[in-house]
Structure formats: structure tokens, C-alpha cells
Design a protein that fits this description.
The chain has a domain of 151 residues: Peroxisomal Thiolase, Chain A, domain 1 (3-Layer(aba) Sandwich), CATH 3.40.47. Helices cover 33% and strands 22% of the residues. The protein is built from eleven helices and 13 strands. The two termini are 28 Å apart.
Length: 376
């Protein structure tokens, strides 16, 4: 008789940096940079050779995004008008890297919540937008730091990395290739953000999340059944970062906008909202789930307006904070970790039988849905 396996989410973990930047602090820093730039280039600006920069405002940021603050790993250099980029001491190859360090902390919390030990875990998937290096894989470093005897690898599908990782982990469990898999998303997004760009300097924050996906036979009594997952990618240049090992920044290209995060925000909004909403509805129907009856939607935390419209199209009415909770206001956009933070912070109050959706979307375009039901 063939043994069957059923993947569930046993627990989650979250690491939040101690330092946070408010919109007021961010605007003061950005506007100081604008004043400095315009003063230093006054003659060139007057001659039409250089474009004058325009200040930002708290009102502009909150209207455009819904973000009020963001956590970061290195606050002081980000707010320094002459630096405006993360800075920390480079570590030796023998020391745990900063990305692995925060990933380990999130994983340890997830393991503790499930009453699990490292020896029980078979694999670590590091699913994130920005890897600290190409190799050795961040996942393998995290695996070693945790003391897990198994395998690990990195995967990057931008803001959808975590949901893609959850489906990958669930597929390993279904196939019997692993019984317990950690999906960890350490997102130090402050490194890819252009803090000198008025239209995007407020978007991102740093964080790390972990999701423990296991076979139901070893899961704690209270867990989340994975009803089904769906992934989708459609190529688009509307969100892009050109920094890489073949076209990395040089002294001549240092600070060029296309080596950092760039996006066509209005195009993204117009194209992604209907794509994701329809994807959710179609997958819900395939699973026999009434999308309008979803108890809660843990959506990607990128933009309050996008989430509001997607939830409305799925639920058939404008969602309240209970139906579609946000962490965007205090965390900012944390790329693939956003929907997992929302799930981690706003899921304990649901009761057995409640059905919900974890959903991410972003560059690629990429989108992932994970339909879950509370058990126990």
C-alpha cells in the first residue's frame, strides 16, 4: 500500500530589527539631501544641465503607500544625507553572515513554536529577494548554524519567494522526500533600495520570517492544513534591479538608478491587481473554496491601495482590518516576508475550520497563493 503524505504549516517565526525609521525621520533626511544636492549643483541647475530635486513629505508617502515606518538593520547611515545606504562591518568568512544570522533567529522561533528540534528537520529553503552572496548558498549556511542534517538551497522569485518556497516545501512533503522543511526569508531590502529617489525611498524595510512545513503525522495538534497552492509568473520589466555579477556597479556606474530597485508603479498597479485577484478566485473555485467566504486574507504587504482593491475583488466587498490585516504601516514593504509577517501576527485568533489565504505578488511578475485551513 502506497503511503500518502499531507503537508501542513506547523508554525512560523519572525525576526524584527530593533531599529525603526519613522516617515518624519526619513523625510527630514531626504529633504536635507535634496537641499545639499541643489546647493552643490546650483550653477548647473540654473544652466539647465542638472535637474533640481524636489523634497518629499510625510503626507505624500502615506498617501502613496500607507507606510508610516520601517525596521532596518542599520539606521544611522541610511539617514546620513551624505551616505543614505546601509553600512556595517564586513565579517570574516568564519563568522555567521548577517543574512544567515537573522534567518537563524526566525527559524529558531518557528522550531520552538512547534516543539521541534533541529534533528527533526530535513531541509532548509532560503527564499528571498536579495541574497548576500552567490555561493555557498545562504540556506546551507543557515542549515549548518541550526545543526540540521539534511539539505538546503536558495531560491529567488522576488516578492513571491516565500509562497513559492512554501509550495516547494509542500511538494517535497507530498512526494515523501522530506517530512519537515523550513522556508526562511531573510529580507535585508534596505540594501537594494535607492534612498535618494523620491518616488521609492520610503518603500522597503528589513526583516526575516520562517515557515515550518511538515507532514501532518508529525505536526502539532494546532496547525494549518495546506488546501492547495498556485504559482504564476509573467515576465515584466516594470519592477527591476540590474545589479548582478555580470553587470555589477563600477566606479563609473556607482549610484546609477538601474543598479537599485526601480519600478513603474502605476503600470504595476494596473496590471498586477486584476491578475492576482483573478488568480485567487480561479484557484479557490478549483479547490472548492468560496472566495467570498474566506475568513482572512494575508496579502503581500507592498501597497495599501493594491491590497484594498484585490481583497474587494475577491470578497465582493471592501475588506475590513480583520478580514485583510496589514503590517505595512509599521514594517513597510518587506518583499517576500510581508504576507508571512501578516500571517504570523494575525492568525492565532482564528478557530478550527476557518479558511484563509496567504498571497504574495511582485517582480517577475510573480504571484503565489497558499490556501490554508485552521486545524486543532
Amino acid at each position: 500500500m502506497t503511503q500518502t503524505y499531507h503537508p501542513v504549516i506547523s508554525s512560523t517565526g519572525l525576526f524584527t530589527p530593533e531599529e525603526s525609521i519613522s516617515n518624519e525621520e526619513l523625510v527630514a533626511s531626504f529633504n536635507a539631501y535634496v537641499e545639499l544636492h541643489n546647493t552643490q549643483n546650483a550653477d548647473a541647475i540654473a544652466a539647465g544641465e542638472v535637474e533640481a530635486l524636489h523634497p518629499s513629505s510625510v503626507e505624500f508617502i502615506e498617501k502613496a503607500s500607507g507606510i508610516k515606518a520601517r525596521h532596518v538593520m542599520a539606521k544611522q547611515p541610511l539617514l546620513d544625507p551624505e551616505i543614505m545606504a546601509p553600512r556595517w562591518d564586513e565579517r570574516s568568512d568564519e563568522d555567521l553572515s548577517i543574512m544567515a544570522e537573522i534567518g537563524v533567529k526566525a527559524c529558531e522561533q518557528a522550531l520552538k513554536a512547534a516543539g521541534r528540534e533541529a534533528k527533526d528537520v530535513d531541509a532548509v529553503l532560503c527564499a528571498a529577494s536579495n541574497m548576500q552572496r552567490a555561493y555557498p548558498a545562504m540556506a546551507v549556511e543557515i542549515q549548518a548554524a541550526l545543526g540540521i542534517d539534511g539539505f538546503g538551497f536558495d531560491m529567488n522569485v522576488a516578492c513571491s519567494s516565500a509562497t513559492f518556497g512554501i509550495q516547494t516545501a509542500a511538494d517535497y512533503v507530498r512526494a515523501g522526500n522530506a517530512r519537515s522543511v523550513l522556508v526562511v526569508s531573510p529580507e535585508i531590502t534596505s540594501g537594494h533600495l535607492n534612498w535618494r529617489d523620491r518616488d521609492s525611498h520610503f518603500i522597503f524595510g528589513d526583516v526575516a520570517t520562517a515557515v515550518l512545513v511538515e507532514d501532518i503525522s508529525m505536526a502539532p495538534a494546532e496547525h494549518w492544513d495546506i488546501l492547495g497552492t498556485k504559482l504564476k509568473t509573467v515576465f515584466s520589466n516594470n519592477i527591476r534591479n540590474n545589479f548582478g555579477f555580470l553587470n555589477r556597479a563600477t566606479p563609473e556606474t556607482e549610484g546609477k538608478a538601474d543598479k537599485l530597485f526601480v519600478q513603474e508603479g502605476r503600470k504595476v498597479f494596473k496590471e498586477v491587481v486584476p491578475m492576482v485577484a483573478q488568480m485567487i478566485v480561479d484557484e479557490a473555485e478549483r479547490l472548492g473554496v468560496d472566495p467570498t467566504a474566506l475568513r482572512r486574507m494575508w496579502l503581500h504587504q507592498a501597497n495599501a491601495g493594491m491590497n484594498r482593491l484585490i481583497a474587494q475583488r475577491v470578497l465582493g466587498h471592501e475588506a475590513n482590518a480583520d478580514e485583510s490585516p496589514t503590517v505595512l504601516d509599521t514594517y513597510g514593504n518587506t518583499s517576500s516576508a510581508g504576507s508571512i509577517i501578516a500571517f504570523h501576527k494575525h492568525s492565532e485568533d482564528l478557530v478550527s475550520g476557518d479558511t484563509g489565504l496567504i498571497c504574495s505578488f511582485g517582480a517577475g511578475y510573480s504571484a503565489g497563493t497558499v490556501f490554508v485551513r485552521k486545524a486543532g
